[in-house]
């Protein structure tokens, strides 16, 4: 047995000598470890950017008006939910897990711990990035590349460029002196004369020349003329909630039957606080 | 080389003096040869080739040795990975002769059995156990080998197999269940 031991030892030492083998330098291993940790951390940062863009998309889809722009909530959800950013987050978490798993001590951490840690870190960092305005930059910048995706503000403008279903948005050009109508230039540049018979004080509060508004009205059968039932400000883009309504009601007069007939009437009435 | 020197100290010395590495070879040759045999490397020539490659790889990677591990776990990890590479490259099937090793495994299965006494009284031949053992997926065999044949702790197994400790525990549990299922009906729970 001793002879055999010596024999293997001698064989190995002879091979080391013959092939001039030397231990690989320490820096190679340190560098490899640092690169894997770095790539893992970078994946978490990219995940955070995806979260910030996703929050921006979700916050700006303006879920309150889904009945005015979509037939079903599911249809709206598919258009407005940050699915792309969710998938991107999952992808970056997978990349982060792969890299951290290949660090020197990465095997000690269970998948669940690494995945949860990456999700929480990405979410916290993503919320901070969203709050600092990075979410919009990412959503609009990166989101303009995939052919199957449109940045949410572009998408939302398209939803509100649909007078045939009673949804119209754009800039208020002027309000007639009798306030019986106002002129609106939609996002495509077309001018609309919009009658205001059914509007109330909170609606008029949004009607300032130069302001961007969304108008819910009776589905239009002609071009250039529109009957408004509700007017809402276009809204801010970097907040989670925008208080709407609350203005004192100055008229008890009911809205017309025409307006009561529009599909989102009930929901918008609740939203407005009528 | 003073015999009281730890493996870790000799490994540090071997970085500058390759002769010192020879002492590590002496210390681990028999243990690792037995381990490789337990992993299914039954042909002595194959075993020596794998062993030699494992030691050379260890020497080349001495600077990657993490002092937070035991040198022994690190060395076993390299030998294990070399054995797996050998099986993959040669498309060879491991072969086992459990011998006395089977007793520890059998005792553990008996402890887990609903009727320990009945299980222990039943006669299980070495051949029956080996036959069941060889049907297990490699990861289960590796886990049982380290735990019951090599007597390794879960922490050491985690370092050798490069999986979290929780996964080691799951592997052992599932491996024992799979082994019981593979035994003749008399020994089923």
Short description:
The complex is a heterodimer of chains A (274) and B (189). Chain A has helices spanning 2-18, 26-60, 66-69, 73-80, 83-101, 111-131, 134-141, 152-159, 201-206, 257-260, 265-272, and strands spanning 161-162, 167-175, 181-186, 191-195, 212-218, 225-233.
Structure report:
The complex is a heterodimer of chains A (274) and B (189). The relative contact order of chain A is 0.11. Chain A has a five-stranded mixed β-barrel with strand order 2-3-4-6-5. Chain A has two domains: 26-151, no CATH class; 160-272, Nucleic acid-binding proteins (OB fold (Dihydrolipoamide Acetyltransferase, E2P)), CATH 2.40.50. Chain A is built from eleven helices and six strands. By secondary structure, chain A is an alpha+beta fold. Helices cover 50% and strands 14% of the residues of chain A. Chain A has helices at residues 2-18, 26-60, 66-69, 73-80, 83-101, 111-131, 134-141, 152-159, 201-206, 257-260, 265-272; strands spanning 161-162, 167-175, 181-186, 191-195, 212-218, 225-233. Chain B is an all-alpha fold. Chain B has two domains: 7-90, Orthogonal Bundle (Rna Polymerase Sigma Factor, Chain: A), CATH 1.10.1740; 101-187, Winged helix-like DNA-binding domain superfamily/Winged helix DNA-binding domain (Arc Repressor Mutant, subunit A, Orthogonal Bundle). In chain B, 70% of the residues lie in helices and 0% in strands. Chain B is built from ten helices and no strands. Chain B has helices spanning 7-16, 18-38, 44-60, 71-90, 101-112, 116-121, 126-134, 138-149, 154-161, 165-182. Chain B is globular and about 60 Å long. The model of chain B has no long low-confidence stretch (mean pLDDT 85). The interface between A and B is medium-sized, with 24 and 30 residues.
